[in-house]
Amino acid sequence: MSDVLKPKPFPALTPAQRLHLEIYGYVIIENLLNQSEIDTIKDTLYSIEDDFKRTGKLPGPNCFNTSTSDEFFRIDNLPHLAPCFFDYITHPHIVGMAEEIIGGPARLQQSDAHIRRPKKEKPLKYGFHRGINPAYSHYDKGLYHFSFIKALTNLTDLGPDDGGTTVIAGTHKVPTDIPQETIINAALEDPSMIHQVEAPAGSTLLFYESLIHAAGIIKSDKDRLLILGGYMPTMFQAWMGYDHDPDFVKTISDEHRALLTGEKKFSWPRSPRDLAVSAEEI
Ligand SMILES: O=C(O)CCC(=O)C(=O)O
Prior knowledge:
CATH architecture: Sandwich
Largest sheet: 7 strands, antiparallel
Oligomer: single chain
Helix content: 10-25%
CATH class: Mainly Beta
Shape: globular
Strand order of the largest sheet: 1-10-7-12-4-3-2
CATH topology: Jelly Rolls
Radius of gyration: 18 Å
Bound molecules: 2-oxoglutaric acid
CATH superfamily: q2cbj1_9rhob like domain
Number of domains: 1
Strand content: 15-25%
Distance between the termini: 19 Å
Order of helices and strands: HEHEEHHEEEEEHEEEEHH
Structural class: alpha+beta
């Protein structure tokens, strides 16, 4: 486990990546994790699932399962459960990107890791949803900043049949005045608006949580594993059930603790980037 937060790049996104996110509501950063990081997270996740199936026990305090079915195993609230989870959630590149989009210091709001397997039952439908109203946004230096950003990294290679995360491009700015079902039905009429992640293992999908998105539909016979962190400005609460583990945060650096607890709250210096500025070398 890495003890101190290494310098976060600023800006963390290239101008092209930042513009892609602005327009489509998401951007894919290929190969953010290396093979050894990917393998360690995958092994940890499979072993948590194996232990749960054998003993019915969770891997530690202050965590929970959103699903334990054969087709979808998900463990929630990760930082204290394994060093590889902590290293992902605090990864300087990921936190740097999150802060660039939020527009100031971030706190961890949510964290979870998933194993998805092909569904036996057909027909299959997308479970499109969004987690937060697009209204929680502001503009700074002409760029759209948002209060809830997710970094979702696929831990398996994703081809067209492997069920990568699927989004309705550009819906991050479509207000809730239009019912979600209406937006989804309109998009389904023209599949060019529905974008699905295809990327090598270790690639990170960065997206505004107001973007309408879904797990993709697995048509191959492969498992799909992922890990994700959700980040918000420090003055926001953690999502229900994702509060930090009080014993664990006593063991980490001040900077890491601040990221997990949001303890700086309203002490929130703004840091807008300029679109023309190149990304800092990582
Ligand atoms: O499984 C996925 O790719 C999407 C995960 C998801 O829906 C979410 O993070 O809200």
